[in-house]
Give the backbone structure.
Amino acid sequence: MDLSNFRMSFTGSVHSMRGPVRVAILVAGFAVSICRGSLSDQELIELSKDSSAIRAGKETYQNVCFSCHGQSLEGGTGFNLRDGEWVHGSSPTQILASTAKGFPEKGMVAFGSVYDEKTLENMVAYILSQQIGFRGLSYQIFHSAATNVPLERLTQSRPTKSGVLPRNFADEKLTDGDDYAMVFQGTLIVPEEGRHFIKVSKGRQDEVKVEVDGKESRPIDIGNREFQYAVKNGRQQVRMSYLKRDANPRFEVYLQGDTLYEPLSVSARNRMLQTNYFVKADDRPIVIRKKIEHLPPKSIGVGYPGSLNYGFSPVTNSIVGLWDGDFLNVGPNIDGRGKNPSRILGEWLFYESPGIQVLVEGEPFEGDFVKYTVGDSPRFEYADEKRRVRVSASPNGLRSIRFHFELEGFGRKRITLGLPEKSLNVESKDGAVLVGRFIVDKAKRSQFSITVTK
Ligand code: HEC
């Protein structure tokens, strides 16, 4: 696409379409911001350091773009907008052009006819401020005629091939054969907040070395042939060396943080896409019994990816966590193996035990966990000899979930729900929401629901 032409026609159409608006704004005295030309790459980069522009851009993004591009820009129907892979151009002005022109044939409207230029620029500033992963990634391939040459020596020899990786994902499958090593080198962008690691999954005999700004990063063995390498916040030069030696070679690389799980290699990306695809192809909830970070042992996770997900504890018979985003990361315990818990791929609304729990005359109902049934809406059931409680949930739009409670055999006892201490946005027509408590109306005692909204 010829960008300069496009940008001219875009500016032109804004001016003609926005005629009346411009007049109104002129009167209000903001003419300058509308009439000036588009910002340059450098100016947009500057804007991406301006916290009020970022805040304004984030607001628009979270209202409009998140439904396709994900709440954390991680992608969904639309592409991931935070990684180093750009299909329609990665420069700030190209991102602005993509946003303004849209991809109507793919379902994304031309936002240039919806928003003024300032709003679009702020949105691009926000997108730029959220960038993570590799940029300017290059590779070198080393082969050796002799076997068992150590990684260090092999990578000091002359590369047999080298080049750039325009998608900015490390790709160990660019070559094959038995003894080979690869070096990937580029700028890694890490979020400014929190602690982050490069996580590498490798074959047993494979060798990996990671250097950050010229210094070797010491691996932390987290089991299951997975290793974490500490990285700094912000931008840094990273060099990853990989020697394929195992019969089942593997080099899967992620950027991992408390709430972040981002692929850095093609194999990692494919694995995450498969999982996402699997999840999105099937709109039904997923139910998973595996260790989830911050939730008590044995909790069962119910995922409505893209909406809200929750954890149910069959020990306390209560809802012990609620989060948004893409359910869980696929590692480190992909099949429920491993000692490390899975992490959520979004934000917690709460995690707390007992969390949301049915109380009878103010005391927890101590029934035994009976079972859960999986279907359109998974249902958890617990009971004692005479009484039974069933808990189910259904998403209510993208930011809200309805929990439904069915009670049998409680007669005229007073029923309340204990709520987490952390303040939650709870609504219900079936009773009164107080701090830390929901009091069920007498008439609704055998069937009631609450809606929690983000
Ligand atoms: C209805 C879904 C939808 C919405 C809403 C949406 N997009 Fe998109 N967006 C897409 C799709 C689909 C693509 C990929 C187009 C293609 O296949 O080439 C895309 C691509 C893009 C790209 C190009 C990415 C690249 O790799 O080059 C940018 C930038 C972008 N969108 C920004 C935005 C912004 C900013 C918003 C909010 C104002 C937004 N989008 C809202 C669906 C959407």
Residues 64-65, 67-69, 77-79, 81, 86-88, 95, 98-99, 103, 106-108, 111, 123 surround heme C (CB under 6 Å). Confidence is low (pLDDT under 50) at residues 1-36, 276-282, 331-338. Residues 282-453 form one domain.
